[in-house]
Specification:
EAL domain-containing protein; alpha+beta; Beta-Lactamase; Rev_trsase/Diguanyl_cyclase; disordered N terminus; 8-stranded mixed beta barrel; PAC; disordered C terminus; 7-stranded antiparallel sheet; Biofilm_reg_signaling
Length: 865
């Protein structure tokens, strides 16, 4: 740019040229605040042409921040001039000509020549740093306000950060955790050794860490036990090396209490153990969960007298002291709670009048506080009291409130056992959502069916039924919709089986079918009928859900002679069904056992491959339909060369990545690698204008995806329109409001969006008005049938007309013959891709292919995206 200055400027040409070339903005100002020089960097910073800047009052172009951090603009302070800013550094805000804001760090020097003062202001653009700092502060505030406890460590597993929720949950301030390993701080005497080892191993091997999850008992600063679910992920640099480990902890104490107490106490009731024995088990379980207290279960008779059913930590003499006492307004915590029919807390029994007649009995035992809660029947009748005895003054906290809620509900069942016998039985043996037999009942039924099969010499079928993509329904539609779907599938399964067959729910979306006295022909026929029923649309909240199931079958005695083996083998066969494409059945075979082991090893190898350089990309050219010598762009396709197995088919390892929660990491690797290669080509003069990649449907559930894409493009200095994302049918299936918002944010970045496999599955016209699509990819099945099918030709021509009408590019993939190319070109197909033009190529091979064919860049003759 040519330097402009007002007449009379004393700056020599050499100095002027030097100042012009400086990276920072340089502005020269005279004693009247008038600008006499404005270099190129200043033009860029202010967005103001130099000719317009010269002669302007410099103080009108900046705002300085005073000591209250309030911007002071020159127009607010007419007395403020450049001389007052000389010899100091100031943070300034700059309103650019287009109205946007920039920030800079400004230093002003005063130069006096022959009695005339001039000033040079050097302004370093700090806009990016300022915005990053503001973003960091906002993010820090959000992280600190969230209810989830977040702890970050360095790669060696030592704490570098914890948020406010971690302090609230665990009691430790950040300065108490810095530099320490979480296991040293939070583990305690009842922390599960195996779970602890899994967490230690995960944090000590961060290179292979991705989405590790574990439930574990930890201890707060006051040594209170707390069940948490911890998810650990690694934050990696651009090279893929872990720089931090982030642990997110969720309090699941109430869930664990429900599980442990219900399993043990309800089990004891079902086994018809005496009431006193069940009450003792309940108290022991509670004291096991909260070892800082003792508890008792006390029955209240219809005459209003107390009878202790269980108090395992109190001496018998103390129990006898209370037994037979009438309830009353000052009978300790228990008798008073029964009298008032409301909870009673005594924070210090040494001076509370309610304990006046009993404190000498309890104080020598180290009991200093008590909390009692009345137990009422469903009709509101008082039937008992549940009491906590504390070794410290004060008593009840949130942890104990949750615990007593669970315990009292079980006491109600215990004390009303006769009338509640059927309810207890259902809770113990049947799934609450579907009313089907649960794991415990299934085990009993299978044992009975196995014994019958052994006695009669007949066969027995065990069938594992797992819904396909059920997690996606939960993630995109919500758990309420998922529950309705499970309920309807359970009803269809019950209706499909015969008398004597057993249908149960094992867990989540997995059902078990036990079919006695069956053979392979009968069970295959039954399962096919069940699959057909499951495929029927399910109406939920005004919309139709389409689902399917994968089924595995194990037969007694050929595939196993005990419950555990048959269930395991049916499960293996079910997973093989999923691997074969879902929505089908598979019988177990001995080969599957080794296949499952091989799959587990392959999963571990894929985790390592993401960081060991075994993955690579191949690039398939997309060319202009009318002039196949013109390159439109390339599609990046991921490949894996296993050190022992050689090339692993993408269909195999990509599907496995989806099923094993590795797909997000794989997607991120592909995105980074493709952008890195495109940037390299551009630096070397290989003018490839666009690269297309596929991202998993589950990735679009992540609201952070647009940010990841933007950061990756910035890191490689690529314009957004150099990237195309191909949306698969899974994205269409999960096109919720949140997913649509994420897609819209990506499109607003300038990234191109392509609808893959258009004309099949969920990729239909209904989505074109909901999604900001730039491109349609004609499914290869249409292209392959062009030479022999009138229907394929008609459908292809229709898709091309749709693309033309909506101003969308149509890409025909799978073009393999000249006849196919000719038909597509005659009907105006703008872009083609397939082996007729080139197979997927390595970067070096693609460069050679371009030179050999003398391919010209599509943009040069007007082909635009």
């Amino acid at each position: 740019m040519k330097i402009k200055a007002i007449p009379g400027s004393k700056v020599s040409p050499v100095v002027r040229a030097t100042l012009e070339d400086m990276v920072d903005a340089v502005v020269m100002i005279d004693a009247n605040n008038a600008i006499t020089f404005f270099n190129s960097a200043a033009v860029k910073l202010w967005g103001l042409p130099a000719g317009e800047a010269l002669g302007k009052d410099f103080m009108s172009l900046i705002s300085c921040e005073d000591r209250t951090a309030r911007p002071i603009h020159g127009s607010e302070r007419p007395d403020l001039d450049i001389d007052q800013l000389a010899g100091a550094s100031n943070e300034v805000s700059i309103r650019r000509l287009d109205g946007t804001m920039s920030w800079g760090s400004m230093s002003v020097s005063k130069i006096t020549t022959a009695g005339q003062a001039d000033y040079i202001a050097v302004v370093k653009d700090t806009t990016i740093q300022r915005l990053q700092q503001e973003q960091f502060e906002r993010l820090s505030w959000v992280v600190n306000q969230t209810d989830a406890a977040i702890i970050a460590t360095d790669p060696d597993g030592r704490v570098v950060y914890s948020n406010g929720a971690a302090t609230r949950m665990l009691g430790y301030e950040l300065d108490e955790l810095l530099g320490r390993r979480p296991s040293e701080v939070f583990f305690g005497p009842r922390t599960n050794v195996e779970a602890g080892m899994l967490i230690r191993n995960a944090t000590e091997q961060p290179n292979s860490l991705c989405g590790f999850r574990q439930d574990i008992l930890v201890y707060t600063k006051t040594r209170k036990p707390l069940w948490v679910s911890i998810v650990i992920n690694a934050v990696r640099d651009e090279a893929g090396n872990p720089v931090n480990l982030i642990g997110v902890l969720t309090d699941i104490t109430l869930t664990k209490m429900h599980e442990e107490l219900q399993e043990n106490v309800l089990g004891a009731m079902v086994r018809e153990m005496p009431t006193e024995d069940v009450a003792r088990i309940l108290c022991q379980e509670v004291e096991h969960i909260a070892p800082n207290l003792m508890c008792s279960v006390i029955e209240v008779s219809s005459e209003g007298r107390l009878t202790t059913l269980a108090a395992p930590s109190l001496p018998p003499s103390v129990v006898q002291r209370f037994d037979g006492l009438p309830i009353g307004p000052s009978v300790g915590s228990s008798g008073t709670a029964a009298w008032r029919e409301e909870a009673v807390l005594v924070a210090d029994i040494s001076n509370d009048p309610l304990w006046e007649d009993y404190r000498e009995t309890f104080l020598p035992l180290g009991i200093k506080a008590g909390f009692s809660y009345p137990i009422k029947a469903k009709d509101g009748t008082l039937i008992g009291v549940f009491t906590f005895y504390y070794r410290e003054r004060g008593g009840l906290d949130v942890f104990h409130e949750r615990l007593i809620e669970v315990a009292v509900n079980l006491c109600i069942l215990l004390l009303q056992r006769k009338s509640n016998r059927a309810h207890i039985y259902r809770l113990a043996f049947y799934d609450n959502l579907t009313r089907l037999p649960n794991r415990a009942m299934l085990t009993i039924k299978m044992e009975q069916a196995l014994q019958d099969a052994k006695d009669t010499g007949s066969e027995l079928a065990v069938v594992s039924i797992d819904l396909d993509r059920f997690k996606q329904v939960n993630d995109t539609r919500g758990h309420a919709v998922g529950d309705e779907l499970l309920g309807e599938i359970a009803r269809r399964l019950r209706a499909a089986v015969c008398d004597g067959d057993v249908v149960g729910r094992l867990c989540s979306d997995e059902f078990i079918l036990i079919v006695p006295r069956s053979d392979t022909y009968r069970i295959a026929y039954l399962v096919q009928r069940i699959l057909k029923e499951i495929r029927r649309p399910v109406a939920v909240k005004g919309s139709a859900l389409h689902t399917s199931a994968s089924v595995g079958i194990a037969m007694y005695p050929g595939d196993g002679t005990d419950v555990e083996t048959l269930l395991r083998h049916a499960n293996m066969a079910m997973y093989q069904s999923k691997a074969d494409g879902r929505s089908r059945l598979r019988f177990f075979s001995v080969e599957m056992n080794s296949a499952v082991q091989e799959q587990a090893m392959l999963e571990a190898d894929l985790r390592a491959a993401l960081h060991d350089g075994q993955l690579y990309l191949r690039y398939q050219p997309k060319v202009c339909g009318e002039h196949s010598q013109i390159l439109f762009g390339v599609e990046a396709l991921v490949r894996w060369k296993h050190p022992l197995l050689g090339e692993v088919p993408p269909a195999r390892f990509v599907t496995m990545a989806e099923e094993r929660a590795l797909i997000i990491e794989l997607d991120t690797w592909v995105l980074s690698a493709a952008c890195r290669q495109l940037a390299k080509w551009r630096r070397c003069g290989t003018d490839i204008r666009n690269v297309a990649i596929n991202l998993s449907a589950s990735h679009f559930l992540d609201a952070g995806l647009p940010g990841l894409i933007a950061r990756t493009l910035r890191a490689h200095d690529l314009p957004p329109d150099s990237l195309t994302l191909e949306l698969t049918e899974g994205v269409m299936l999960g096109a919720t409001t949140a997913v649509l918002a994420t897609i819209d944010r990506i499109h607003r970045l300038g990234v191109r969006l392509s609808m893959d496999d258009f004309g099949t599955g969920y990729s239909s016209l209904g989505y074109l008005h909901r999604l900001p699509i730039d491109e349609l990819k004609l499914d290869k099945s249409f292209v392959q049938d062009l030479e022999g099918s009138d229907v394929a030709r008609a459908l292809t021509a229709s898709v091309l007309r749709i693309g033309q009408s909506l101003h969308m590019k149509v890409v025909a993939e799978g073009v393999e013959t000249e006849a196919q190319r000719r038909f597509l070109a005659q009907h105006g197909c703008p872009v083609m891709q397939g082996y007729l033009f080139s197979k997927p190529l390595s970067p070096a091979a693609l460069e050679k292919w371009l030179k050999t064919r003398r391919i010209r860049q599509g943009q040069s003759i007007g082909i635009t995206g």
